[in-house]
Design brief:
Elements lengths: L2 H25 L3 H25 L8
Length: 63
């Protein structure tokens, strides 16, 4: 399997996990738990975007 394919698979897994976290946040009645799940979903989505950018060759500029 190529590195690009593995990166794409990883990004897909992160997207799926983020979606599940967001759905769980919507279902919970505990505001604190909802906030924690939403934050986890947001972080996973950010990781997914970074993974997608890296695999597409869109690396952020070096500082």
């Amino acid at each position: 399997m190529s590195a690009a394919r593995e990166s794409g698979d990883r990004a897909q897994q992160l997207r799926e996990k983020a979606r599940h976290m967001a759905e769980a946040a919507e279902r919970t009645s505990d505001p604190e738990q909802r906030q924690r799940l939403q934050e986890k979903a947001r972080k996973l989505q950010e990781q997914c975007e970074q993974q997608s950018d890296t695999s597409a060759g869109n690396r952020p500029p070096q500082r």
